[in-house]
Amino acid sequence: MKPILLGILSAFFFAITFVLNRKMELGGGSWLWSGSLRYLFMVPFLLLIVAGRRNLRPLFRAMRLHPWKWLLWSTVGFGLFYAPMCFAAAYSPGWLTAGTWQLTIISGSLLAPLFWETIATPAGPVKVRSRIPLRGLAMSLVILAGIFLLQLEQAGSLTAKDLLLGVLPIVVASFAYPLGNRKMMELCGGGLDVFQRVLGMTLASLPFWLLLAGWAYASAGLPSTEQTFQSLIVALSSGVIATILFFRATDMVREDVSKLAAVEATQSGEVLFALAGEVLLLSADLPSALSWLGIGIIVAGMVLHSHVSHRRPKAQFSMEK
């Protein structure tokens, strides 16, 4: 139950990203600065945390062992996740990007066959290829049905351009985030704690963010004071607090693909939190009766997903050669 609660709490802090990114775009800020500033601001905070715990040296030692893997999967997990999300905010309201982002619930489940897990057998622990958790996937579809209802009335006011540029980048991000996160968990094993892993991935993705910042400066000049301050808030709430909470939750269940999918499903709460944030901060309309029905289905789907994750079905696995 604790990983689920941590996942829901992380969804609250993640939702701030959708609201503030949209606010920055409406205020004329460049999505390039919104993306790069968040991760540039994260570095000093994470360095202080990890250094205060006296864990910098083991992290740097681990990064030196597999530098290219750190660079690749950190860029996928952070760069190809957040840059498309900021780009989408330039064309779609926060509720749409938050809603489309829930595809990650299914994306994470579909990625399961790319990874191996350890199971206990009479002959001892054996590594097997993970299978797609079908029960969890069914509950994910329930959650997505609720999200569809939540957005049905509002989506009618969107243009084809809004849908294309606001949805497709989020589809890319929905696969990149769980893929990068899981690959790094696989690479680190239990050797690094969540603070070290988040800092390591942030440092390893810096080349990507510095290139993005250079592009932002060349195309839009320096960011405004308001955008800089809002990016700092996003860095603290979403980049540091939410990411650490979510990575901690996934670390706790990394050996069980069904429970891992359930933790990832808690991110559907971002839709509810983002909707509330847009109503309070951006004067968005209150949800209709149909939208409230969608909210109820989302909550029910999250509860069911958590329940079925503890009733793992028997399955046949392909053995690692």
TrEMBL record:
Signal peptide: none annotated. It comes from the Bacteria. The chain crosses the membrane at residues 31-50, 70-92, 98-120, 132-152, 158-177, 198-217, 229-249, 289-308. Keywords: Membrane, Transmembrane, Transmembrane helix. This is Multidrug resistance efflux transporter family protein. It comes from Paenibacillus chitinolyticus. The lineage of its organism: Bacteria, Bacillati, Bacillota, Bacilli, Bacillales.
